[in-house]
Amino acid sequence: MLITEEDLMTTIIKTFMDHLQHRDIQGRFQFERYTAVQAFKFRRVQSLILDLKYLLISKPPEWTPALRTKFLEGFYAFLELLKCMQGMDPITRQVGQHIEMEPEWEAAFTLQMKLTHIISMMQDWCSADEHVLIEAYKKCLAVLTHCHSGFTDGEQPITLTLAGHSVETIRYCVSQEKVSIHLPVSRLLAGLHALLSKSEVAYKFPELLPFSELSPPMLIEHPLRCLVLCAQVHAGMWRRNGFSLVNQIYYYHNVKCRREMFDKDIVMLQAGASMMDPNHFLMIVLSRFELFQIFGTPDYGKRFRKDSTNKDLVQQNNTLIEEMLHLIIMIVGERFCPGVGHVTAADEIKREIVHQLSIRPMAHSELVKALPEDENKETGMEQVIETIASFKKPGLTGRGLYELKPECTRDFNLFYYHYSRAEQSKAEEAQRKLKRLNEEDTALPPPVLPPFCPLFASLINILQSDVMLCIMGTILQWAVEPNGYSWSEAMLQRVLHLIGMALQEENQHLQNISEDNVLTFTFSQKISRPGEAPTTTPSILALLETLQNAAHLEVHKDMIRWILKTFGTIKKIRESSSATPVMEVEGNVLEENTRDKDKAERKRKAEIARLRKEKIMAQMSEMQRHFIDENKELFQQSMDELSVSASTSHDNSSPALLDSKLVALGPHQTRFVEQSQLVTCILCQEEQAYNVDSKAMVLAAFIQRSTVFSKNRAKIIQDPDNYDPLFMHPDLACGTHTGSCGHIMHAHCWQRYFDAVQMKEQRRQQRLRVHTSYDVENGEFLCPLCQCLSNTVIPMLPPPRSLYHRLDFSEQPDLAEWVNVTGQQIRVIKELAEEKSTSESESSTVETNVPEGFRPSFQPKNPYSDSIKEMLTTFGTATYKVGLNVHPNEQDPRVPIMCWESCAYTIQTIERILTDEERPLFGNLPCRQDDCLKSLTRFAAAHWTVCPLSVVQKHFSRLLQSIVRQEGSEEAPSVLDIDMFHLMVSLVLSFPAVQCQDFSGYSLGIGDLHLFHLVTMAHIIQIMLTSSPDDNGMEQECPDGEEELAALALYSTICQYTGSTLKRWSSGWHLYRTIKTAILPFLRCSALFFHYLNGVPAPTELPVSGLSQIDHLCSFLSLPSNVISIFQQNPQVMDNLINSWCKHKEVKRFLDVEQTAISYPRESNKLIDLPEDYSSLINQASNFSCPKSAGDKSRAPTLCLVCGAMLCSQSYCCQTDLDGDDVGACTAHTYVCGSGMGIFLRVRECQVLFLAGKTKGCFYPPPYLDDYGETDQGLRRGNPLHLCKERFKKIQKLWQQHSITEEIGHAQEANQTLAGIEWQHL
């Protein structure tokens, strides 16, 4: 071995010490005046510690004499290293003024942390061999004695006397002398002392151990000073020493250092106290805490209270007493160190976990961080966690949590020594809340503790020592007379806990005592005795009984009752002279009697609370009655208004409720008068109804380009300035989506708010950074109420179609007549426009061809107020700007087209989401989406009023031309290249521009109906042309009926007109079922559109899903239940139309398999499928090379979750130019794949990345979780990760609902550090 043959252990340690040559006069390491070069050298030297760790990582299976000799030599060298650390970086309390310069402290703690595992491994090696352990203990004691030699030099010994006991010690004040927090030799000796007990070497070979040479006061002196220092820092006495001391105290208790610092100091105090008279030990503790005078002088507290006016000093002393009592609790109660108590290492871990979970349920990673790690980075948690905690799986958010099992709460110790003050407070609150839920007493008694090992057994006598009883009695006396003394409830709480510990200890002794043993622990008897003359103070028991009835101690009464109950049990057992079984019976009877008393007490309290509640409710009722009597007129007026509004609403809704057949459009449309609704502006809080002639009310909205439903992501608008968006292709390559948070403002209030935001951002540009969660230059702002990202506002309008109704004649034209008349009107409009453009005078031919009742020169009056017209223009321009990615231009003829397109696309989006989630079409939308769709549809229907009439008429002419061919017109797209819902919406919304000049009596409703029927028939032809019999593998459920035969006849007609040999369907049932399945999304979208457009209530009996919806939708939309029959109602017109549709050249190309077409119904797009095991993704990324480098591996491979492309992110090699800016691969990909929005998975970081544009982005928790339900962003923990389908569905839902940009905005507002990331370079 390297230790035996090469003496490597000694060599490493000496080499390490040779490089640390800066020492003070006493030979201790000194890091204070290190230069930068020396600090760098120190960091390099630390690598030697890793070599030493490698050497000690595995204990030897057997010891040889040579190994013992060499190891002990190395151990002695290690002691020399620790000797140089003993007492380094001493500090002195600053008095008068604050320290001028923070001293160097990090180097010493870095060295301590690096050596922590080495010290633990040294002790493990020593425990493996008895001879080595004995020799190591002797040598460590000798080194410690040498370090402490002369620690009493120059100090005058003093004699302390209290409660009839005297002890000699030195005069030393931590607050005045130098003190150090670094005591590695003392702590190593404490660890070895515990190992002597654990391995039973102390009992086997006492003659070989130098116990007679031990000086307990010397052993406890420096650890006690260190703990007093911590107490004084908590009391605020060292606040002038700066943050360096605060940081040292923090790391002293931190989980990284405490095992070989704080914990070992407690063990050393336990070792010293076990070898001392407990009264002497407590007097030394009082002296070091500088509290001896308070407890040693009669009535000192009262005199201090009267004489002193310094409240800070009173608070200081109170805090020091609390800390001193807490220290005694720790010394007597902390037995879960192997060797101190009869416990194992597993018990120690269990106790740590129990107390962490007593604060709150914790995730696995939180628990691991809270537990100390060994040299192998293991905590031992996995071996014990299932016995004390149950795992609760995570939901869509959050992490999996461990919850403490109910039976483990009995092990909770309120004054657990690893709790910080904040943790102790949280744990106390959580445990009291749990007890209240279980209807138990809220007392938190000390738990039953394991027995001490024999070497530490005498520690329990501290609890019954005279000095301890004096301290307890003094504090209880202060509490009895609260006006005469300075005390705190925390002080009393600790005293009650100590009394409870003593009673628990005595109870355990009584239960475990045998006939041969004599019980020496008689705490219950001692607290029953009053004080001796001349100061006859009451007994502790009497003081407790007095405090039980004190009004100012309500919170502690449960604990006092528990103490008195436990005392009664012990007293009964002691008084009983019968056999053990009888004792147990009597004890049980007493317990039952006590329990009955407790139940009666709780019942009495509950009755008092009930009576008090009834009294309060009676008072409230009387006050209400009195208020009504005083305000009779106002109350009566309110009641009248309420009854009137209720009756009005009943009258208005009664037709819709009584009429089971609701119709959304056409001459038979259900008439429903929408009541004027009052809404409140979120900025000025003023209520107003939105009417046509009032000030405009607007909704904050966000418009964005979308490819969420795109079937052709490769299609990109190359020249947006000259692009014609009139016809949307069925592939929905790029749509314009509008969303809203639903918050309402006055238009002028919003304008003032937006102007203020603009001014603020202009001033912000002078600062260091620019706010990036919204871009004011692009019109973006945050909703004033919910801080949701917005870039425009939608005006709120009443139903717009109700404004255009004129006198409608009872006889309305059929489809053929309407098509003929409308065609004539369009021709007249075209001829007039051509003549006007050529500046020729009106000819007589035009006059004679004008249809009867049509007035092409009539200009309708705009019914809206100026404020509403301005908002119509504002939102329309914003839709145009974002939808086409061009500069705003409200005069552009494409503005109304983009408004119609956004309305149609948003409705399609909502319908698709409802279908995928199997939610009802009506009544299930959140208010924000319902208000958004209503406002968007009504805006799109009203926008033509602010556009030039000729522009809208031209758009209608071109739209109608696509389904009703006219001679001499320009070529229109084929039915295969038009999305029929977009076409229907655009036709219906542009038709009023033509109908407003028609005074023949034809209604607007009949036009809507005929347009809808025309588009529906075109969509059926579209479905028949693109459907294939091979796609339907279902078995026929019933024979062909009238509907199925009509579908086959129509299919034959199509085959005849196309002149092609289309595949034959096996039955009409299959064909008709295919048609119904494919047309269902169109009908659902149309139902939503006309519901919001005309304000007709939604049908209540509509099924959630399935083809059974067809009949209800057809009834609602004025369609025959057999949709094929609309072809038979107008055979002559339809033959011509079908012929024109089928003869289109693009249809012929499709039938000749020269091009493809979209089939129906369109499937919803989803994010890519991810592998179950994350290691598959890591393997895929490891094989990915940068496409622009010669085979070099990508440093940050990133997967696009939309299309599956792997990209080389965050790298200069793959940066490209985008509109004059250098952008990374991910940002560039978003403009190709998602119109500027993207979702990516950074494989090596296991992190989801959301991007929107060049300046917005955020990180999102990945859908991969470990076995503990936690994500591992950065892959730091290294646990196996598996796909959580629910979380992946949540990400997909965010994408489908167009909420990615909103999520980014909220994330950047919540975390300002995200603003500093250059997202465009990712």
Describe this structure in words.
This protein is of the alpha+beta class. The chain folds into five domains: 2-333, no CATH class; 345-437, Arc Repressor Mutant, subunit A, CATH 1.10.10.2670; 463-575, no CATH class; 678-803 and 860-1033 and 1040-1151, no CATH class; 1174-1321, no CATH class. The chain has 47 helices and 20 strands. The chain has a five-stranded antiparallel sheet, sandwiched between helices. A three-stranded antiparallel sheet has the order 8-7-11. Helix 25 runs antiparallel to helix 26 (580-630). The longest helix has 51 residues, at 580-630. The radius of gyration is 43 Å and the shape is elongated. Mean pLDDT is 84; it is low at 577-592, 640-659 and 840-848. InterPro entries: E3_ELL-like (IPR042065), E3_ligase_UBR-like_C (IPR044046), UBR1-like (IPR039164), UBR1-like_WH (IPR055194), WH_DNA-bd_sf (IPR036390). One of its GO terms (cellular component) is ubiquitin ligase complex. Pathway: Protein modification; protein ubiquitination. Its EC number is 2.3.2.27.
Brief synopsis:
The chain has 1322 residues and is an alpha+beta fold.
